[in-house]
From TrEMBL:
Keywords: Signal. Residues 25-48, 101-131 are annotated as: Disordered. It comes from Streptomyces solicathayae. This is Secreted protein. It comes from the Bacteria.
Length: 391
């Protein structure tokens, strides 16, 4: 096993922070890579590889068969695709088996604390810790939109949390997932992560780790494994995002468009799980929000990444840099692995809506912060929706 530590994120002048999730697991990928089952076409289970995906790989001198056979493990700077248009993620069937998913969730090293200065914006007092509570099982009955994102980076297999969101171009048939930018792209010093998948209602029955060691893939992923055939994050995260210092955190969001690994009988992700949350941009200012609920699969100690948790608290404000948008902040004891998980509040129509996602939190795991979703976030969301409109 190869030791992996969580990716880091930043701190303010009053507290040291780290990106709570990309809580990495200590795994060396020794899984056997099998031939890919490309994206299913809408309304069928016929497997085809989109031509644009082949073309993008070819532009970078990447042979698709070699990629699926292990070339994806080459993290040479020239092979690590970086630009927004470079995202490629060919399906490698059965790559994410139960052991690989489970092992991706255990961080094994403490995170170094790192201060940042220049906090001249609006920052409210540090909130009191709110103890994360177990989501009642089965998770699908109580948080059907929630799940886990698995992906590979230069240091090994990693994990985040994510949420199924509505697609305005395909009402009732969304294949869109909301997560953090750092769960799909390494930021200014790297590129797109690889083998990105979404697993809704991971470990739906909340089995302990000891039982999961013998669990089948169907038990761990009862609603299937969905590969990200397209992902988009903010240009600010791509140009500014960093593993330390909190750079780009106010723009740390992403949308993934997914397709089933082995077909879904023509059903979309939303139809498969039975639910998707609306996304509300430019949510009310902090004083007008009574409470936000954050959901995720924390993986850093004392958690092990196998169970779903939630925190509910009235949000405060956190500013990383004065010239950047102020972030939401709530008290919460969730740790690495919960990054990307959705924050839900009462929307303008009185119904639950996604208004943020977990981005950063302190080493001591007492609170979490997430970006306020403004015009940049809406541009990312709309672009993914438009790309697949009519399909």
């Amino acid at each position: 096993m190869r030791p992996i530590r969580p990716l880091l994120a930043a701190a303010s002048a009053v507290a040291a922070l780290t990106l709570t999730a990309t809580a990495c697991g200590p795994t060396e990928d020794d899984a056997q890579n099998k031939p890919s089952a490309p994206a299913s076409q809408p309304g069928t289970d016929k497997i085809q590889i989109p031509q644009d995906l082949r073309d993008r790989l070819k532009e970078h001198g990447i042979d698709l068969d070699k990629w699926r056979g292990g070339e994806w493990k080459n993290w040479d700077r020239e092979k690590w695709l970086r630009e927004a248009k470079d995202y490629v993620n060919p399906i490698i069937e059965d790559l994410w088996d139960p052991d690989r998913m489970r092992d991706a969730e255990r961080p094994d090293k403490p995170v170094k604390e790192e201060d940042i200065s220049g906090d001249e914006g609006v920052t409210d007092p540090t909130p009191l810790p709110v103890r994360a509570k177990n989501v009642k099982t089965p998770y699908h009955d109580n948080a059907a939109e929630s799940g886990k994102v698995f992906f590979d980076g230069p240091e090994g297999s990693m994990v985040c949390s994510a949420t199924v969101v509505q697609d305005p171009a395909r009402p009732g048939k969304s294949n869109m997932v909301w997560t953090a930018g750092h769960c799909v792209h390494a930021g200014k010093k790297g590129g797109w992560y690889r083998n990105i998948v979404f697993v809704p209602s991971y470990n739906n029955s909340g089995k302990p780790t000891s039982e999961l060691e013998k669990a089948s893939r169907e038990e761990i992923a009862p609603y299937g494994v969905w590969w990200g055939d397209w992902a988009k994050t903010s240009e600010q995260w791509i140009s500014q995002g960093g593993a330390t210092g909190g750079q780009g955190a106010p723009y740390d969001f992403a949308v993934i468009h997914v397709t089933p690994e082995k077909g879904s009988g023509g059903k979309s992700l939303e139809e498969t799980v039975g639910s998707a949350l609306p996304v509300e941009f430019n949510a009310p200012a902090v004083p007008k929000i009574a409470a936000m609920k954050a959901t995720g699969y924390p993986a850093a100690p004392p958690y092990d990444g196998q169970k779903l948790f939630q925190c509910k608290d009235k949000p405060g404000r956190l500013t990383i840099k004065a010239e950047q948008p102020t972030m939401y902040r709530i008290g919460c004891t969730m740790t690495g692995g919960s990054s990307g998980g959705g924050w839900v509040a009462t929307g303008k129509d009185g119904k639950p809506a996604l208004v943020s996602n977990t981005s950063i939190g302190p080493v001591t795991a007492g609170w979490l912060a997430g970006p306020r979703l403004g015009k940049e976030a809406q541009a990312v969301y709309d672009a993914v929706s438009r790309k697949y409109a009519g399909q």
